[in-house]
Each structure stands twice: as C-alpha cells, then as structure tokens.
Amino acid sequence: MAGFARFQAVLRLFDETASAWTVPAMSDALGVPASTVYRTVRDLVAGGFLEAAHESVYRLGSAFIEYDRLLRLTDPLVAAGRGALHDLVAQAHTPCVALLSRLYNDQVMCVVDEAARDTAFRPSYERGRPMPLTQGATSKVILAHLPARQLNRLIGGPKDGDARHAALRRELADIRKRGFCATASEIDAGLAGIAAPVIVREAGIIASLSLVADDSRLEESQRRRLVLLVVSAASLVAEELRYALTPPTIVEPRHKMVKQ
Amino acid sequence: MAGFARFQAVLRLFDETASAWTVPAMSDALGVPASTVYRTVRDLVAGGFLEAAHESVYRLGSAFIEYDRLLRLTDPLVAAGRGALHDLVAQAHTPCVALLSRLYNDQVMCVVDEAARDTAFRPSYERGRPMPLTQGATSKVILAHLPARQLNRLIGGPKDGDARHAALRRELADIRKRGFCATASEIDAGLAGIAAPVIVREAGIIASLSLVADDSRLEESQRRRLVLLVVSAASLVAEELRYALTPPTIVEPRHKMVKQ
DNA sequence: AAATTAATTCTCAAAAAATGAGAATATTGA
DNA sequence: TCAATATTCTCATTTTTTGAGAATTAATTT
Is 80 exceeded by the pLDDT of residue B21? Predict the structure, then answer.
C-alpha cells in the first residue's frame, strides 16, 4: 500500500460505529506496522483530516467541515439544489423530505436534503450517506438515465441476466419513458419515494430529485400532485444548471507557488 | 513536495473564488509538471476527493460530503452542540444565529450553526469557515481559555508586547474572569456577539458557544437575558460532553485487512 | 519519586514509489 | 475528418516510504 492509498486506508477506518481510533488499533486493523501508521496519522493530522482527541485517540478532523462548506458554496448542483428543495418542501404542504442525489462511485449519494417543517420521520437517504444503486426511487431514476456502457459496468451486462436483472432492466426502461419513479417501502417501511431526473448532458450531470413522504397518508390525488411538483422542480434545477454552466466556469490560474 | 503535501497542495487550490480547475492550470499554479499533477489528480478522483466535471475541469468531490456527515454523526462536540444550539435559538425569542466553534490550526472555526426562524441576517461566522483568532466574541472566548503555552505560540509571548497586544491580554484575562464575552460590530457591522466557553479539560476540548443578534435591537435587559442563556447553554454542552466522554469511547480494532 | 507501562518518535539500510520530460494515445470540438 | 487538447505512458533517476527495533517521551501506578 502506498501513495494515496495509505491515507485513504486510514480514513476509511472511520465510520458511524468506529469513530475514534488509537494508532495501535489502526495498525492492527490495517496490518501495517505502528511506526508507519504513526507517520501517516501525523500527516493527516497536519492536514486537518484527523484530530487528536484525548488519550492518543484520533477522530476525523475539521478539514472535512471546511471542504464541505466550500463544496456547498461552489458546487453547481448543490447550489442549484438548495433553493429548489427549499421551495419544494414548502409547496408540498405536507410533512416530507426532499433530496438531491447523484452517483458516487458504485452507489448513490444524496448531496442536499431539506425537510419540511414538522416532519417527524427522517428517511435513510440523507446528505452524505451512500445508498444502494438498485433500490428506491431516488437511485432508480439515476440508473435509468445512465449511459448504456456505465449502466452495464454497474449492474452487469444484459446477457448475464437472471430474472431479477431482466425485471430491473424493464423497470428502468419504464422510468425513462414516464419521466419519474414512485416507490413505497423500498428503503424505509411506510415511506414513499417520488423521484425525477435532473439531466444536463452537456455538463455530464445525472442526478435525481426526490421527495419522501409518509405512504399511508398519501392519497392518490395528493400523490399525483407531488409527482408534478417533483418533476417540475427537477427540470427547474436542470434549467438552472444549464444556465449556470453555459458560460463555462472560468478557471483562473493564480500562479500561486507551493511552499517547501 | 512529496507524500501527503502533494495532495494537500492540490486540494488547497480550491476555494470560494476558484472552485473549478483544469490540470494545466493546477500545474501552472503549483509549478509542478502536468504529468505529475495528472497522477495526483487521478488519485484524488479515485478517492472521491476530486470529481471530473465536464471538459477536463475538476471540482471538489463528494467524499467531503460523506466524511462531513460521519463527523456530524460521531464527533462528540458537534453532536452535543446540535441539540443545544437548536434549543438555544428557540429560547432566544428573537432573530439570531447560534454557533459552536473551536480552534482549527491558527484560526477559529465554527463546527455547528443554527439560525432562529425568520432570521434575516447571516453572520460571517458559519459552519466550516475559518475565522481570525483575535476578533469577535466567539474567538476571544477560545483564546481566553487556551493554555498559556499555546496562547503564546498563537499570539506571541508576553514580552514582545506592543500596546494592542497588552490590551488583548487584559481583555482575555477579563473574559476568563467574567465567564463570557460580548462584542458588537467587531466582525459584522451591526451585529452583536455573545459567547461563553465550553471547556472540558479532561478531553482537551476548548470551544465557544455564541449567539449573534442584531445589535441595534438589543436592549440592555434583553442582552442580559441572552448572556444568561448563552452561558447556561455552554455549561450544558460541557456537562453533556463530560458525560458522553467519561466511559472513554471504545476503539474496537476490527481486524479488517486492507486490499492490495 | 521511582517504576511500570504505553505511546510516540527516531534510525537506517533496503525496497518501493514519485518524478519529469517527452512520446504515445485518447478525446473533443470544429 | 482534422486539429487541438487532454491524458496516459515510458523509463531512468531521484526521492520517499517502509519496517524493525531502539530510543525517547508521557502517563499511570506503586
């Protein structure tokens, strides 16, 4: 293990259930000598990616908060999504959570979320949490609009198809045709998801905007209304992105030299 | 430049005003050959720390969103602060923004923020934004409770004191004695800040909890009430942290081997 | 205060990886 | 299709990283 992988491997140790690590424990878990891990950790601490808590225990560092803010402020999808989701949950006039999600490696990740006032539940999809590719309206809408090659890589080519695989393919084709996807209890029991695609081919953006609401309270007319809201919010976001991205974001070299 | 510095240098290029970079531009800015930067960027993209937008332009990657979520969920200070700030802005009964901030390298960074309903302004202090050490109630409260050695390193030893330096020292001593700090228009014109320390020595935690409100609307009685609120919220957070951290977070080695 | 234990840094030679310049290749837009 | 860029590749050289254990430091106990 070398180069960046070394740092990645350490950072990947941290998750919801293991949020604090000692160096010996990392050394153990990674099968790498302690002296090596100490050096790696020292670098990560210097960069703010890890922080020494008390008693030789390390946690994720504040640099992630800093970079997350930058991303929130500067990422076109996130920026466009924030306003749209805010409006969407207000117009929904019912407890719900709105999400904007995109592909992230082999999973789908929500990059903006917003809950309506007085929404008691929280869906499993939430900002920053990687979710499975093939379940839930949010993910399926993204899958449905992926270029064929990429889709094949992610869920396997059309030939190696068992029955479930063929069914998924059919469902995706259907979603593409309809322009939205609605599911219930696929991710969270009792919650329904309604998702529509946010596609800006020129910019390589394939995302999905979705609304999660309590399924039992969702009458058919209400459901149709929300589908319309979601679909139009999604095309609004797409439009905003097209507009924001046409004068392609200028990259100005700053001729800043790096020290050392 | 080698090791981790290489990756850091690339990531540090990204900020609010330069959020999208081409490799040639990075190569230029860093004074490093393009072929080298391509390799570095490839690693960062593989790790999710950078993402290729359209047309050979790179942006910060979603890994930051993922790690930020983990941090939000697992960092004791952040976790304790979220609830406290939520309650605080509700009890304030006036438009305001509450912040929980800590030292971050040579600056102060807010790690949780929460605005009361119908708060029109947004203070410069916001989650993830590094702020100067010596201005604003938020920062001063932190400075005031730093161990002498650390303080000397950050603002210079007691001997090399000009008038301003001596005044700051006096102010810090005063803050330590009073147990809070209130300022007005030090960071944002027209906004007042009230901050109290969140100290948990056993855990090495030195943070500050603050409330920002419109200065012109702030009568003396109201101000006193808010000071009380802030001070008690701060000690509540400290107490919660002591409780959460006494059974020191167990680090369970997972004996997970790294691939490759 | 000394002793014990654990954490962390240091040392150094061997092994591995990064570097840079340019060639080779892919991708993109006209 | 052609040009213009972007990106990857190649390879000899230089520079790190690595790992094992010793040395040091820090924390805790006796």
Answer: yes
Would residue A257 count as lying in a domain? Answer: no
Mutate to test the interface with A, among B14, B15, B67 (most CBs of A within 10 A): B67
Considering all nucleic acid strands, name the nucleotide whose C1' atom is nearest to the C-alpha of residue B54: C28
Q: Is the predicted pLDDT of residue B254 greater than 80, yes or no?
A: no
Answer for the pair B57, A249: CB distance below 8 angstroms, yes or no: yes
B48/C6 CA-to-C1' distance in Å: 36
Tell me which chain A residues have a C-beta less than 8 angstroms from the C-beta of B111.
Answer: 62, 65
Residue B55 has pLDDT above 90, yes or no: no
Q: How far is A171 from chain B (nearest CA, A)?
A: 28
Beta bridge partners of B50: B60
In a domain, A251, yes or no: no
Give mean pLDDT, residues B123-143: 96
Candidates B29, B52, B251; nearest CB to A255: B29
Going by C-alpha positions, the residue among A69, A119, A124, A77 that lies closest to residue A101 is A77
Q: Sorting pLDDT into bands at 50, 70 and 90, what band is B253?
A: very low
Q: Please give the residue range of the domain that contains residue B11.
A: 4-65
Confidence check: pLDDT of A259 > 50: no
Both A84 and A15 in a single domain?
Answer: no
State the Cα–Cα distance between residues B70 and B86, nearest whole angstrom.
20
CATH number of the domain that residue A190 is part of: 3.30.450.40
Region for residue A51 given its phi and psi (left: phi exceeds 0; alpha: psi -120 to 50; beta: otherwise): beta
Domain boundary among A46, A65, A84: A65
Question: Quick check: A104 and B66 CB within 8 A?
Answer: yes
